[in-house]
Design a protein that fits this description.
Elements lengths: L1 E10 L2 E11 L4 E5 L6 H9 L6 E6 L2 E2 L5 H7 L1 E4 L11 H13 L3 H5 L3 H20 L15 H14 L4 E5 L7 H16 L3 E5 L3 H7 L2 E6 L2 E6 L1 H6 L1 H8 L2
Helix pairs in contact: 3-5, 3-6, 5-6, 6-7
Bound molecules: adenosine-5'-diphosphate (ADP) and magnesium ion (MG).
The site of magnesium ion has 3 residues, from helix 1.
Protein name: Amino acid/amide ABC transporter ATP-binding protein 1 (HAAT family)
Keywords: ATP-binding, Nucleotide-binding, Transport
GO molecular function: ATP binding; ATP hydrolysis activity
Length: 249
Amino acid sequence: MLAITGVSRSFGGVYAVRDVSLTVADGEVCGIIGPNGAGKSTLFNLITGHLAADRGEISFLGHRVDRLPPHRRARLGMSIVFQAARVFRGMTVRENVMVGLHGRTGAGFVSAALRLPRHRRDERLIAAEASSALERVGLADWASRPADRLPIGQQRALQLARALCARPRLLLLDEPASGLRGEERERLAVLVEELRAGGLTILLIEHDVAFVTRLADRLVVLDLGQVIADGPPAEVRADPLVLAAYLGH
Ligand code: ADP
Ligand code: MG
């Protein structure tokens, strides 16, 4: 599904991602771990096109995408939830999801301002699609509440709902569990398991190794911008290089 070959990106002469090669198979859940500053978020931004690579190739579903802008890659079927993403304040949960959908259907400002019949039909379709996404992440009962009043765990679920509305084949989640505890963490884990059971391919950045081991088919470890281990979670966790770079402190 995804093939990354020799991708590098530096900032001010310092590599954030250095000569990274990585493939992700259809239906796989791939965990990305590594210390702070290892280049995990940068790698995600290179995959989605929010950052340009200095070198290397990225192919997605057989298309060379490394020169495409983010919206073109999104249209091919990748969707990202950024690290520490925020919900829109002053909007309900459903409106938060609908905002993303407006961009996709082209039910734009002009038809809204003119109150065209097409606009009203599109609004109904969008509301229905938003409701079904909220249902999928267990937020149906919260649809009419102000989004910024949701507990943090449900704000994460809301971001997932927004990402799912794009009907991605590949979902990139950047530390979705950060700040979540106990029951909230557990609910997120179950959600990821459900998405995986539905056949979605997932790249998951996570610093809690136990948590990601439970969810991932495979772990990739980044350190100083480079892949230092890649394989089954049990093997990777026992790798001396990994222990030294990451788990040992
Ligand atoms: P991680 O997500 O693994 O914590 P990041 O990808 O955010 O790491 O950062 C990797 C390195 O690249 C860090 O040293 C960080 O300071 C640097 N970096 C990331 N983004 C930028 C940027 N936009 N400008 C300058 N340096 C950056
Ligand atoms: Mg990060």
